[in-house]
Amino acid sequence: MFSGKTPMRALLFGAAALVMASFAVPSSDVAFAASEVKVLVNSQVITSGDIAKRVAFLKLQRQKGDLNKLAKEQLVDETLKRAEISRLRMSVSTTDVDAAFGRFASSNKMTPAQLSQILEKAGVGVDHFKSYIAVSMSWPRVVNARFGAKSRMSNDDLVTRMTENKTKPVTTEYFLKQIVFVVPAAKRNAILNQRKAEAEASRSKFPGCDQAKVFAATMRDVSVQDLGRVLAPEVPEMWKPLLEKASGNTTAPIVTDRGVEYVAICSQRQVNDDVAAAAVFRAEDIGKDKATGVSANDKKYMDELRSKAQIVYR
């Protein structure tokens, strides 16, 4: 649906997204001793250097407790996830990771270079962080591919939830189009600010959804994607506040891996049909999963991978 739709806004960076802008960076570079093998996960090695970088990352997140143990377990899980992602060929691209890194820097009022410097200074390192990003972005694809169809609410479950709820929940139904000011990766640094200005300036001239494609054709490298009906609970996290705060019939533009984009609101209304009810109930379930930090399907998948793996701690 939306480009830029990733689990990233809500679950990609976890606690790090909440604290990166204000973390305390050590006054001197972290020095690592020669790496030793500390964990073997099937044929993959986790070294003391890997663990030290993850401990440094956990400190940035202000995590408490036995950070060395937590770091090991996180890296074991990521190693298993990475192998499964590779087996199923469902990894995001290097371009996707770089774009996410850039958006994360921007959301914390930094340039990618400044973020890189901070990560190196803290002892985390850019490569370690980007590896974390890659797994965090790719893993939900694997889980959804495995459980997506099974996780849809059955008619019986829907009736049960509505009976418990006594009334059908109401939500907003949108019909949307996405306007993309394309920025080729090779020209990103050179023209991104110009494209931001062009996108912002075009909003006041937007003629409405019926004329969107004709409107786009009057500008250079602008595409229109018809998103159709989108219920509020299904809107990606990165777009929700923009839709809620939309001025007129367009949202504010944002930078994505494709370029600069905004969403045109063709129509919106309150609905309470069965499809809307299922979407609301599903969003509630996802909210519960976020509160616990992991979905039931994610846990089931990881328990299965761990039960089949050979994990040796040294």
Question: Please, could you describe this protein's structure?
Answer:
The protein has 314 residues and is an alpha+beta fold. The protein has helices at 8-12, 16-19, 48-60, 67-88, 94-107, 112-122, 126-147, 155-165, 188-203, 212-217, 240-244, 274-292, 296-308, and strands at 37-41, 44-47, 171-182, 222-231, 254-255, 259-271, 311-313. The chain has a 4-stranded antiparallel sheet with strand order 4-3-6-5. The protein starts with 7 loop residues before the first helix and ends with a strand. Mean pLDDT is 82; it is low at 4-33.
Strand adjacency order, main sheet: 4-3-6-5
Structural class: alpha+beta
Which ranges are low-confidence, i.e. pLDDT below 50, for 5 or more consecutive residues? 4-33
**Topology as a string of helices (H) and strands (E):** HHEEHHHHHHEHHEHEEHHE
Strand fraction band? 15-25%
Radius of gyration over C-alpha positions, nearest whole angstrom: 22 Å
Compute the number of strand runs. 7
Major β-sheet, in short?
A: 4 strands, antiparallel
The percent range for helix content is 40-55%
Query: Number of helical runs?
Result: 13
First CA to last CA: what distance?
Answer: 45 Å
Determine the mean pLDDT: 82
Morphology call: globular
In short:
The chain contains 13 helices and 7 strands.
Q: Characteristics of this structure?
A:
alpha+beta
